[in-house]
Amino acid sequence: MTDKTFLNQVYDLATPEATRALYDDWSASYDAEIAENGYATPARIAEALARHAADKAAPMLDFGCGTGLSGVALRLAGFAVIDGADLSADMLKGAAQKAVYRRLWQVAPGADIPRGYCAITATGVIGIGAAPPEVFDTIMAALAPGGLFAFSFNDHALAAPEFEGKLRSYTEPGGARLLFQEYGTHLPGIDLKSNVYVLEKT
Asked: Which of 11, 55, 107, 166 has the fewest CB atoms within 10 Å, counting from its CB?
């Protein structure tokens, strides 16, 4: 069995600096530990996005791509041109080895991201111990009108009202339309589930 020290710590992180340091340290064993715990959300997000995407050949962004497990799932779902960005330089090394990304870059906390993408994913990225709700605004600003944002909130995020509150701050005034929402498996090895969403920017 893989040591679960990193997975046990990740939901207690309080700052971007602590998050980046932990993921840098975790990068060498991340894929093995996550696989051991049955990480299901990358495939769930990729499949949900594929059902709603009009053009799988259009460039898309995998935000918070980590070691590239989400990029692999997107490629398997038929997406052809995938860019990736992450806070951790060491995680990005793992993503580069997957050979599914057109380009990869390290993103700084609070920084804007390139605009005009037709689709952006954030797989297990926004939540307790990870990116704050404000990252939702950064992603929506980068999305082209009519573009799709596919993301997840795990049980920890769902228990904190500010995360789904941020989603409603777009859907309720009409800034976005919720196309898909499904609660299901996230990390069964630690009995954690997640909602997967697909949002269309209006």
From this structure: 55
